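Appendix B. One record, verbatim.
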Amino acid sequence: MHQRVTQPKFDELMRYINRYEGFFTSQHARLSGYSVQNQSYHVKKGDWERHGRGIFRYKYYPHLGQRQDLIVATLWTCNRAGTPTGVVSHDSALVVYKLSTWSGHGIHMTVPENFRRRSSCSYSARLHRRDLKESDIDDLESFKVTTPVRTIVDLLMSKHIERIHLIDAMKDALRQKLISRHDIKRACLQPIEQDLILDLYERASHSV
């Protein structure tokens, strides 16, 4: 009995390419019918550009995303089903929302407690382990990011940046109407987390 050969389906692969602004993983390619041999062929031909182990960019995709590093880091966290499990967070989330002038170093991502990877990310990624709730996450299509409330709470709890930057971040969030007292009250926070961010909210709101 002959083994069934799966034919590559470019239209299916394009669904991933469009969602991740030109990027996709080897698992996405396999799910679209591209064998390991097919993948090697397209890399050698130059149609697919490597951006780390098992991550590619379609050379002819017309748009260059502004945060390719965040997309690549997100795809690096994909599970066997081809679904990213990492969420942009902490310092990197501040940058995404344009809160304060703090930029931090490298890429900060929150991954599930049971996250494991043998390979390293092609970008410098600092991982924070936590099982986030859906209410903690904003979906920006090409990657996910923690909500402004969760972002500031995580930074308050981690204590790795100076408080002045978090006050500035809260002021910016209030100006942009990204955080309200109602948002804080309805967020799924521990009592100590809610106390810390409410205190920061009060301090920032008096000077906006």
